[in-house]
Write a structure and sequence with these properties.
3 domains, alpha/beta, binds FE2/S2 (inorganic) cluster, Glucose Oxidase, domain 1
């Protein structure tokens, strides 16, 4: 809808009064009310998608970061103009933050397109914000550079280090098992998240930051810089400068996010032992540009990509250690023979040129292993297929108990999250450590909007008896900071009538990670009978964003994007 692709700065994308000269004059006069000089208003404009919020603790340092971005833009000859978009603070949203990711992406896309912006700095961090911004920017098609807030620092609890949110779960499990008192858990609660920034482990936020760097949409070395480190401000300033240089360069997101760079990002995800959520987000980002991610291909990559990073939730270190150990630069050097090195990055160099320039940088092998002596010989994630998940399910094998990988078990079924909450700690629950816990109706089409509830708690009576892990299966997601033998994203989900909806207490289910299979061992006739008896789906919402969501959301294998947002760019 731009009047002319050659127009830059304030003169582009004019409101249409049928008089172009009047529209420019009017816009400039209103812009002058903000105190800008004619010289400033004649500069190219860098928009800054700005996402602080009283409901987003992870972005609480954004005002200072914004100043640094603006400094960089002005120094390079641009005019920085920030604009607010939806912000998604992970733990403050109901039913889930994923439910609103597409809303944020639409907001971001439309504001980039609607406003007179020549390039954009995307300031995000908390879990869903970065994928939402990349999805929006990919669809908008203007030059864009991602800047993340960076991870929190850890704190101390006696001899222990505390960092959100793997330690949140670890101590809560101890509390449930009666090993931690009420007073202790309250002290721990105050020490888990003590600085600005995103969760301190390789959870979803840090995984997405690292994948964005691997994709080439972020300046080299900037994914892991802690939120409160001065280097974070320098990265912000450099991102602002680079955003000005991008204007007129033709380096738009579709030149950077390609089939090859998506495959690089997948390799990195596997080498990080990163969050399962990242598969959903990467699929959605790629889908905006018509690129499909095949779970079969992911399995091939997983078999030939070692886990290199020793970070929580699967290992022992935190993001600040990863930064000090060499960060993404070290990971990319180890993966070099497996990467597509000719992919272009936002810095204007290819990935290969970047790696060459960083050849001799420091690496701490306690945190980032060498490819010939990896943490694990194979990648952190696998996709499973079978009669229970015809279109796939995900298992984070690097966070799971290998002893449970080849196993048949009896299903104990919870029909919803409410049912789970009501019965999981019932002392009379008929459950043993060998059973498979199954949760239904927590997928993208369910009223719960695919929450991170796939990490089903170990039933209290088993937790107290020392059981630490069980096979758990659902159409839900799992926090990137969680761990266990947990089969997630079962597709199609139960709410859209997938086979998961047909599982009943006592059914046998077979898991084989080696064969990449998850099968419900019930004969076809019986399944047909159960399908005929399924209760009708609840009436869908009739208004607002909820209606849009339930009418349009796709399954996990399509990234849970909306069906009308994938594919062609929207201009
Ligand atoms: Fe924001 Fe974890 S809550 S990244």
């Amino acid at each position: 809808m731009n009047d002319s692709p050659d127009k830059k700065g304030l003169a582009q994308g004019l409101t249409n009064y049928g008089d172009t000269g009047f529209a420019v004059y009017l816009r400039r006069s209103f812009a002058k009310s903000m105190g800008y000089s004619s010289e400033m208003l004649s500069r190219p404009i860098v928009g800054i998608a700005y996402t602080p919020s009283g409901f987003n603790n992870c972005h609480r340092h954004f005002p200072e970061l914004l100043d640094a971005v603006k400094r960089g833009v002005i120094a390079a000859g641009g005019l920085p103009l920030d604009f607010p978009t939806v912000s998604l603070g992970e733990v403050f949203l109901n039913p889930t933050s994923l439910f609103y990711r597409n809303l944020m992406s639409m907001d971001t896309e439309e504001m980039i397109r609607a406003q007179p912006i020549d390039s954009v700095v995307l300031m995000g961090g908390c879990d869903k914000t970065v994928p939402a911004q990349l999805m929006g920017a990919a669809s908008a098609g203007k030059p864009a550079i991602q800047l993340v807030g960076g991870p929190m620092l850890t704190s101390r609890y006696g001899e222990e280090r505390l960092g959100a949110c793997t330690d949140c779960r670890r101590f809560w499990a101890k509390y449930r098992a009666g090993e931690v008192s009420d007073e202790e858990i309250e002290t721990i609660e105050g020490g888990l998240a003590t600085t600005a920034g995103t969760c301190a482990v390789m959870g979803t936020a840090s995984t997405m930051a690292c994948l964005t760097e691997a994709l080439g949409m972020m300046l080299p070395g900037s994914a892991a810089i802690p939120a409160v480190h001065a280097d974070r401000l320098r990265a912000a300033e450099a991102s602002g400068r680079r955003a000005v240089e991008l204007i007129g360069s033709g380096l738009t997101p579709e030149k950077i996010i390609t089939e090859a760079s998506i495959e690089n990002a997948l390799r990195v995800l596997l080498a990080l032992g990163g969050s399962t959520n990242a598969i959903v987000h990467l699929t959605a980002i790629a889908g905006r540009l018509g690129i499909e991610i095949s779970l079969d291909r992911m399995n091939d990559l997983s078999d030939s990509t070692p886990v290199l990073v020793n970070l929580k939730p699967t290992g022992s270190h935190y993001m600040e250690d990863f930064f000090a150990a060499g960060g993404m630069s070290a990971v990319l050097r180890e993966l070099e023979p497996k990467l597509h090195l000719d992919c272009m990055t936002i810095g204007g160099e290819t990935l290969g040129e970047r790696i060459e320039a960083e050849r001799n940088l420091y690496v701490d092998r306690a945190v980032v292993a060498a490819a010939d002596r990896p943490v694990e010989p194979k990648g952190g994630l696998v996709a499973l297929f079978g009669s229970l998940a015809p279109r796939g399910a995900i298992l984070k094998r690097s966070a799971a108990d290998e002893k449970l990988f080849e196993k048949e078990g009896r299903a104990l079924v919870f029909s919803s999250l409410d049912d789970l909450a009501a019965r999981i700690d019932d002392p009379g629950l008929d459950v043993t450590a060998d059973d498979f816990l199954v949760l239904q109706n927590a997928g993208p089409k369910s009223p719960s909007g695919m929450p991170e509830s796939g990490y089903l708690p170990i039933p209290a009576k088993l937790a107290k008896a020392g059981v630490k892990d069980m096979v758990r299966i659902s159409d839900a997601r799992m926090s990137g900071t969680a761990y266990g033998t947990i089969v997630l994203h079962v597709t199609p989900d139960a709410a859209s009538g997938g086979p998961l909806a047909l599982v009943r207490d006592g059914d046998r289910i077979r898991l084989s990670v080696a064969a990449r299979r998850i099968d419900l061992l019930v004969d076809e006739e019986e399944l047909k009978r159960r399908r005929a008896e399924l209760p009708p789906s609840p009436a869908p919402p009739t208004r607002g964003y909820q209606k849009l969501y339930f009418d349009s959301v796709l399954q996990a294998d399509k990234g849970c994007d909306f069906n009308f947002l994938q594919g062609e760019r929207g201009d």
